[in-house]
Amino acid sequence: MKPVLRRTLWLGLALAALAAAAVAIFPERWHAPTPISDAVGAPADVPFGPNGQDQTDALQSAIDGLQAGQRLLLAPGSYTVSRVLTVSREQVVVSGYGATFVATNPDQQAIVMNGRNSTLVGLTLRGVGTQRLESATSAKVVVDGEGIQVLDVTIQGGASAGIFVSRGHSIALIGDKVSGTLADGIHITGGSRDVLVQDSSVTATGDDMVGIVSYQRDGEQTRNIYVTGNYLAGNAWGRGVAVVGSADVTVVGNWVEGVQKAAAIMVAQEDGYRTMDATNVLIASNSIADDQNATQPGNNRMATGHAAIDVNTDSGSVSRLQVMGNQIIRTRFDGFRAQGNICGVGITGNRFGAIGGTPIALLYRNCTAEQFACGSNTLDGGGLSVPSGCSGGGSIQVAGADASRLPQVRSSYRRPQ
Fold this sequence. Notes:
Pfam families: Beta_helix. The chain has 417 residues and is mainly β.
């Protein structure tokens, strides 16, 4: 081995040993060596380590002390947290690869991200609670602000939603893993806009895995939401992806399987929840399997009877919807269903297989067949004839979300997975 290489290897081993010793002796002051590129022109990172005690106050103090552009680096280990933590500083980062926050209070377990352009990355959040709660503070991550990103965060359990986005603008939820929450995995509402949900997994939740909802009380629609490349599976109740009363939404390239009691993907307007109408929704190139045809032991709820992709309304409407290029297999009920005040729908290039009901069921009202375009759909490998109530020609122009308005992901804060 050349002398330069030997010196480089020795220096690396020495730095690793010093870092390990620092964690053992000064756990709340640990930090990994800062790369030179990060150190130049940027505030120094703030190290923080576990100490076996309730560290809520110390963590909040460290977060409040961050300056713009500064990172709080959490050392690997377990941290006990008994109350809500709030990240209100602008352009700061809380980074915690290998670190786990363990909540002890079901109604006080959220990390509230409301600092403009702040980032939460790499942290594991272990929730608590055996009864579903409705408060924002009982969620695991609450996003309320502009430019906030939640990257590679793992959420395990919790009394409410995993990630709750309300009044968020230019938001990125990337590479997150949410499981076992008692409410939605990811819930986007409150007039939020320009939200990207990508490359995440949501499993075994107690309600919708991804909910995109506009309530009348919000005063403005949740809109321009892009959901792509996610794995959604095995929720005991609720839908896989629910687009309810929202506008300009794209759901593309997701894998949705094992939704036990409802639709894998739903677009709807609901009087019971006083939602707005839904419009301009693109559902494309998703893979859907095993919808409502299996359940976990002990889940005795009645199935809703939704189609795998279900579009329905109460007194309101759904308009301008494109459903194209999806694969839908092994469903207990219909493959696609439109029921209610629905108009301006394209259903093209979808592949249906092992469908328990009707591949395409059209039960809409207040519209005409010319406003429903069907073509190039298949069933069990063969061509599917155009169903009654649908035109075999024409097309419906639906754009979905405007990708140019979505935020750029702060990939430099992430570690290779």
